[in-house]
Design brief:
Blueprint: H1 3-37, H2 45-61, H3 66-69, H4 71-88, H5 95-123, H6 129-137, H7 139-158, H8 162-181, H9 214-244, H10 249-276, H11 279-299, H12 304-332, H13 338-365, H14 370-388, H15 391-410
Helix pairs in contact: 1-5, 1-7, 1-8, 2-5, 2-13, 4-5, 4-8, 5-6, 5-13, 6-10, 6-12, 9-10, 9-12, 9-13, 9-14, 9-15, 10-11, 10-12, 11-12, 11-14
Length: 411
């Protein structure tokens, strides 16, 4: 890779860092809004949901147009809009105003992020595309980490508004920088016609629900939905469930952070396996190990050391899944459908994200105990492991389509 490509990938990773910081900003701000604006933290449930809904809407409705009009266009304008809406959040004084600005921020992020993933794959060496995508998307947990570390100093200097100044300004700087640095991706694959056999619909999402692409999309979407369900089930309730098992609250919070860093390592390793080894078996082993670890926790007495190690694989694996699965798209779909597939995947992941916290709430309401909670978490991981064995079926679809199009081009 030349220096321009490396710089482009670094800036694209910056988009994910910005997203992680932005996601954490609202949670960090809520704790301070009672004193600053007289707004109760418990009234912000819909505000948190608005960001998730917005990301899903932007990913499904806007991101796919990167396949038609150029990924750079969606990335630059999506990042710029994210910056504007994030900064506008600092003007909010009521819960409905926060709801509107966070929803719009989510839509802008949803438009940009799938195109960031797609373009990073196109800029990467062919033998390491999934690995590079995982490294770029690792910016999300790093951004969340930065938000937590910097928040005391930022709030001390600028008040709660400073929590949004940082990602808002960063988004605008990244948009301007990417506008200059990016050349629009790979001109041989980006924004091209959809193929001789495919009629180019005005809504490219339609192609994923037609033969032959419905098969790989069903495989990809199923794993993405159940992994997202697990991810939000665990991230939402782990700090609550672990104290019920005898963990001190401070330790429970630390475990929740440690497993995220474990997830980065698992994600990079699994992505390398997808690039350089067997794709289906890599995913089956990752998700299978998660299921085994959750099951082991569910049948073992609470032990801080043993549980922490098992949860690094289990919860870390769920975080890794969010990094790894978009990289699988490179091998399941033609390049002209990358942004569309990842964008629709974002919407599917939001559906799983909504279900996860509700499942956890039902377990807690039933007083079933921490062990049963982790037994429940083993179910989505097991489903993902089983679906992973169908990955070769999806890979075969792309290979057949590539051969058919090559034959048509030479006819």
């Amino acid at each position: 890779m030349n220096n321009r490509t490396i710089l482009s990938l670094a800036l694209l990773a910056g988009i994910f860092v910005m997203e992680g910081y932005d996601i954490a900003a609202m949670g960090l701000a809520v704790a301070r809004l009672d004193e600053a604006l007289g707004l109760e933290p418990t009234s912000f449930g819909l505000v948190f949901t608005a960001l998730l809904v917005g990301i899903g809407v932007g990913g499904a409705l806007l991101a796919p147009y990167g396949d038609r009009f150029g990924r750079r266009t969606l990335i630059v304008w999506g990042a710029a809009a994210t910056g504007v809406f994030t900064l506008a959040t600092t003007t909010a004084t009521t819960v409905p105003e926060f709801l509107v600005w966070r929803g719009l921020t989510g839509i802008a992020l949803g438009a940009a992020l799938p195109n960031v993933s797609s373009l990073s794959a196109e800029l990467a060496p062919a033998r390491l595309r999934a690995t590079v995508m995982a490294l770029v998307s690792a910016g999300i947990p790093f951004g969340i980490f930065l938000a937590g570390m910097l928040s005391p100093n930022v709030v001390g200097a600028f008040g709660w508004q400073g929590l949004f100044y940082v990602p808002g300004i960063l988004a605008l700087v990244l948009a301007a920088s990417l506008r200059v640095i990016l050349d629009g991706g790979l001109p041989t694959t980006e924004g091209t016609a959809v193929g001789a056999a495919d009629e180019a619909p005005k809504a490219p999402q339609i192609l994923l629900f037609r033969q032959p692409w419905i098969i790989p999309f069903a495989i990809f979407a199923t794993m993405l939905a159940f992994n997202a369900m697990n991810l939000y089930l665990l991230n939402s309730w782990l700090p609550t469930v672990l104290p019920q098992a005898g963990f001190e609250q401070d330790l429970a919070d630390r475990v929740s952070g440690v497993v995220q860093f474990a997830g980065i390592g698992i994600g990079i390793a699994a992505s390398f396996g997808i690039d350089r080894w067997n794709k289906g078996w890599t995913l089956a082993l990752m998700f299978g190990a998660m299921a085994v670890c959750f099951f082991a926790v569910s049948i073992s007495p609470p032990d801080q050391t043993v549980w922490t190690l098992l949860l690094c694989v289990g919860v870390g694996g769920a975080s890794a899944g969010g990094m790894v699965l978009p990289g699988l798209c490179v091998y399941l779909f033609a390049s002209r459908l990358l942004s569309t597939a990842i964008g629709m995947g974002v919407m599917v992941a939001r559906l799983g994200a909504f279900a996860g916290p509700l499942v956890g709430q039902a377990v807690l309401d039933a007083d079933a105990g921490p062990q049963f909670f982790f037994m429940v978490a083993s179910v989505p991981a097991t489903i993902c492991a089983l679906v992973a064995f169908l990955v070769p079926l999806g890979l075969g679809v792309k290979e057949r389509e590539a051969s058919r199009e090559a034959a048509a081009a030479t006819a």
